[in-house]
Amino acid sequence: MTHYDYLIVGAGLFGSIFAYEAKRKGKRCLVIEKRKHIAGNIYTENREGINVHVYGAHIFHTSNKSVWEYINQFAEFNHFVNSPMAVYEKELYNLPFNMNTFSKMWGVRTPDEAKSIIEAQIKEAGIDNPQNLEQQAIRLVGKDIYEKLIKGYTEKQWGRKCTEIPAFIIKRLPVRFTYDNNYFNDRYQGIPIGGYTGIVEKMLDGIDVKLNTDYFEFIKSNPGIASKTVFTGPIDRYFNYRFGDLEYRSLRFETETLDKDNYQGNAVVNYTSAEIPYTRIIEHKHFEFGQQPRTVITREYSEDWTRNDEPYYPINDTRNNDLYHKYSELAAREGNVIFGGRLGQYKYYDMDKVIEAALAAVNNELGQILE
Ligand code: FDA
């Protein structure tokens, strides 16, 4: 039996970067992945010549120049700028909240006009000490933006009324008084031409990878296969849920191919009314300015999570954070295991932050990679 330096559990971005860099340092790695494909949640799949974001829309954005240069070794990025739209009843608004949104909502033209409406609504509500998310949102942006663009969407995301969600969930609601629909403020942004899976294929090139392989089964019959383990699965599962389950919100995706070339004219359209059951529709071809004759769309539904569902968004409330703290104390005492990635660290990580974290883990193990 081959002996490896590292057994890497999970072929997502974290595990794949670790494997790639460890191999460059002369280490032997085995990557095991319980799904039938590599790339974890950034997996894209070709349908109708379109790269479909199977686990939800993924737009790469970062202000970290080193991370941008790092990821550009593996793919060329296009100039996609995320400019989502929001549908509320019969109306269509630009996001994030900016002068285009306000102009549509109130017929205003100048920043001063928009500011005075928002300030008047905030003043009229008179909320100093918000007791829930509804009050907090109104205190920050006023009643109109809250009711049309935040309320229904947030209630669908959380599966609860905004009046039952704690205020601290929203700390800031960025409002932009320019006609700028770019959702992100980051310096660099784009979509890898050809999809994300190709990036991970390049990272894992020449590395042993076993798909359809669950760590907990695999390790029973291969106990001494590697000197160290990099575990990017759920940390509570690793410790057999000893202190209880860490909780998540889950998602359900309904994907459909349509016999038309353009369904909604934009990659991301949010549905902010509570009556529409899905939160958004993604039209994948628009991430890459596709000209294919057909189109693929995905409706995204926010769902409650149970242990058998795919975990998507960690619920970082006090209960779960305390629980994670207990698991991370166990993890720190677990010799020869590095816990990483969104599941191993129970954290919502954007891709650029996963790259930073994976490179930091490699640096810690094997020496400097990235300044
Ligand atoms: P990831 O989950 O990708 O990989 C972990 C892997 O481990 C999985 O493939 C899993 O199957 C495997 N695994 C788990 N347990 C195992 C076991 N027991 N045995 C074997 N394998 C096991 N970021 C961004 O920058 N821009 C964006 O637009 C978005 N959009 C976005 C949308 C949605 C809906 C979500 C939920 C997330 C985003 N993200 C994002 C975040 C992005 O998805 C995230 O940063 C990376 O996918 C995290 O990579 P990891 O390697 O940490 O986890």
TrEMBL record:
One of its GO terms (cellular component) is cytosol. Keywords: FAD, Flavoprotein, Isomerase. Residues 148-348 form the UDP-galactopyranose mutase C-terminal domain. GO terms for molecular function: flavin adenine dinucleotide binding; UDP-galactopyranose mutase activity. InterPro entries: UDP-GALP_mutase, UDP-GalPyranose_mutase_C. Its cofactor is FAD. It comes from the Bacteria. Belongs to the UDP-galactopyranose/dTDP-fucopyranose mutase family. This is UDP-galactopyranose mutase. It comes from Paenibacillus agaridevorans.
